[in-house]
Amino acid sequence: MRGLRAGTGVGGRRAAPMSPAAPHANGLPPSAGLETARLAELVAGARTVVALTGAGISVPSGIPDFRSPGTGLWERVDPMEVAHIDAFRRDPRRFWQFYAERFATLAEKRPNDAHRALVAMERHGLLGGVITQNVDMLHRRAGTRELVEVHGSIAACVCPECGERIPLEQARERMLASADGVPRCERCGGPLKPDVVLFGEMLPAAPLARAGELCAGAEVLLCIGSSLEVHPVAGLPRLTLQAGGRLAIVTQGETPLDPLAAVRCRGDVVQELQALVRALGAGEP
């Protein structure tokens, strides 16, 4: 990824002015504008920037996050009853009753301007990759090229017994054709599982290793819409700090790493990232 001098845009040209007035004109309060301007300066001056995203970046697309009071998904259902690997093994029918509805909902969702802002940064050489905790495929649909899905993706389902792997649409067809609503493996007859990491499962080694590599090599790690509480992903920002890099956190909720952040933006993720892209001279997302 080509390095950028502080205060310049792509190819060395001067970035758009980053005074507080510019973000304020785009709907952000003056205090938020100052932080966005600092964020733009931080990104423009870094040779390598990586984004780490959580559920908060998908909320504007109509996907509820997991822990927000009053709206979080886990306030309505017990994750240990519907999203744990033991729950899948014990009662795949109940498991799929929950996930069938969730997958149908996710299939209809589309990327929002926060996802597109990251794509714009990547295309302009300002972002070296995106690591996401989300399984909703929205970064893929937006066009992110260097993408690490550390918790898997709803794009496919797998058989834990024999390893058969099929696209989500085929799994949904089998689910509809099944008397008990459970999609099954055509090789061994076992219940299929979404290719996502459930509670009680280890993260796949290869994506986690790639995420660690990206974070350790990042001069700036841009944490967006994540509570930074779910391990081992919550430990990735410390790899950036240990290597001498800096953290920028863009999320409305508090995180345990807030005191370590060089920049802390608390506004709406769409407005914040749109303002960042404009300040960097990367064009409209």
User: Beta-strand percentage?
Assistant: 5-15%
Write down the oligomeric state: single chain
**Ends distance:** 20 Å
The parts where pLDDT drops under 50 for at least 5 residues are 1-31
How would you describe the shape?
Answer: elongated
Supply the CATH architecture of the largest domain.
3-Layer(aba) Sandwich
Counting DSSP E segments of at least 2 residues, the number of strands comes to: 9
- Structural class by SSE content: alpha/beta
CATH class of the largest domain: Alpha Beta
- CATH fold name of the largest domain, please? Rossmann fold
N-to-C series of helices and strands? HHEHHHHHEHEEEHEHEHEEH
Describe this structure in words.
- With 285 residues, the protein is an alpha/beta fold.
- It is built from 12 helices and 9 strands.
- The longest helix is centred in the middle third of the chain and has 16 residues, at 92-107.
- The protein is elongated, with a radius of gyration of 20 Å.
- Mean pLDDT is 84; it is low at 1-31.
